Amino acid sequence: MLGLAVSFLVLVAVLLTEGWQAFGHRAQGERAERMHHSPQWAGSHFENPQPLHNEVWGSLTGALHRSDDVSPHTPVPVQAFDAGVFATAPASGLRVTWLGHSSTLVELDGVRILTDPVWSERVSPYDWVGPTRWFPPPIPFDQLPAIDAVVISHDHYDHLDLGAVLRLDERKVTFVVPLGLGAHLEYWGVPTSRIVELEWWQSTKVGAIEITCVPARHASGRVGYDYGATLWAGYALVGTRRVYFSGDTGLLPAMKTIGEKLGPFDLTMIEVGQYHQAWPDWHGGPEQAVRAHQWVKGKLFLPIHWGAFALAYHGWTEPVERALAEATRLSVPIVTPRPGQPFEPATPPSVERWWPPLPFVTGAQDPIVSTQLE
User: Do residues 327 and 288 make contact, with C-beta atoms less than 8 angstroms apart?
Assistant: First the structure.
């Protein structure tokens, strides 16, 4: 019995030691003081105006009904990389390259912005356990064009990637993040001068682009005991054209305000994947993503947060199939590029079903309905 206890303690020590750097750091001093003055601060952590609904039992039993196609059985078709694309500015002023999950490269008015860049093999504090990516990053890191800024929506591992941060820091880019998240970056060596921390509705300028931090409905935390220690957000990127990046979010009433204040958006990049009825407020699901697109006054809809990692129980193609069906039903223009395929929203490519035809559960069969929307 004693030997078992010692082995357990050794295992815990190893896990803490190996993951310590990736866990990040909690805000202190002036940063913490600023956080505590936020309307979203609830005494010990950040909280949503409409708190998240969770069903623990449903989350556990959901694994019993896990799709046979949670991960691809064949290689995911990825656009072949062509560095020459980035040698010429987009004719319309806006070009976007979806890299899988929530990572995108946005080129707007001569400014290049990465959203939630993840280049690591796993979304985990460890390199030997955790969800593994299904394909190499469509743009090799050493062939990325010059980047002006990185926007990060929150600190979960599939959005805040230590490896990517360290490599991007070498390029001396500006990091735009929600309140508190700068503590992680500073701990990892990013100079304070290149960290811009924003509260919801605050803005900063990068070149000719105004970046506004906007409300999202989600959570944060990298260890377990740091739930809500940093804020989460979406972003509006505004220049001659407008882009909305949702980050991770359930449906929330503030999306209507986002549309009124900052829309209409030429392109919305809204998460459609990693949902379940047990957590309908954490991730709103495909049908509600189309609704969110309408609420923020979007013109063209790009589904994101799917196609790279298995983080829920549904089939890997189900999010895009359901998003496409709902967009078609409501006559919402949608674009479904392959990972790594650049496109200009002003002249979007035709919808291509580049993924395999797999069985999936429809929105009517498994509706995801966020709570407290009235």
Answer: no
pLDDT in tens, 73-110: 999 999 999 999 999 999 999 999 999 999 999 999 99
d(CA 221, CA 159): 11
Q: What is the DSSP letter of 142?
A: G
Q: Is 207 exposed, middle or buried (0-12, 13-18, 19+ CB in 10 A)?
A: middle
Q: 248: Cβ–Cβ under 8 A, 6 or more apart, which residues?
A: 102, 153, 154, 156, 159, 216, 218, 232, 271, 282, 283, 305
- What is the 8-class DSSP label of residue 343? E
Cα torsion angle, 221, 222, 223, 229, sign: negative
The residue assigned the tokens 């969800």 is 131
Chain centroid, CA 250 distance in Å: 12
Distance separating alpha carbons of residues 190 and 24, to the nearest angstrom: 12
Residue 350, SS3 per DSSP: coil
Class of domain 25-343: alpha beta
SS (H, E, C) 186-244: HHCCCCHHHEEEECCCCEEEECCEEEEEECCCCCCCCCCCCCCCCCCCEEEEECCCEEE
Strand order in the sheet with 203-206: 203-206, 209-214, 234-238, 242-245, 265-271, 298-304
Strand partners, 298: 265
C-alpha to C-alpha distance for 250 and 260, rounded to whole angstroms: 19
- Look at 114 and 12; give whichever has higher pLDDT: 114
Query: Tokens in use for 215?
Result: 């409300």
Average pLDDT over residues 327-353: 98
- List alpha helices for 62-121, DSSP H: none
- Sheet of 94-98: strands edge to edge? 195-198, 174-178, 149-151, 111-115, 104-108, 94-98, 342-343
Residue 248 near residue 285 (C-beta atoms within 8 A): no
Q: How many CB atoms lie within 10 A of CB 47?
A: 15
> Where are the chain's structural domains?
25-343
Please tell me whether residue 64 adopts helix, strand or coil conformation.
Answer: helix
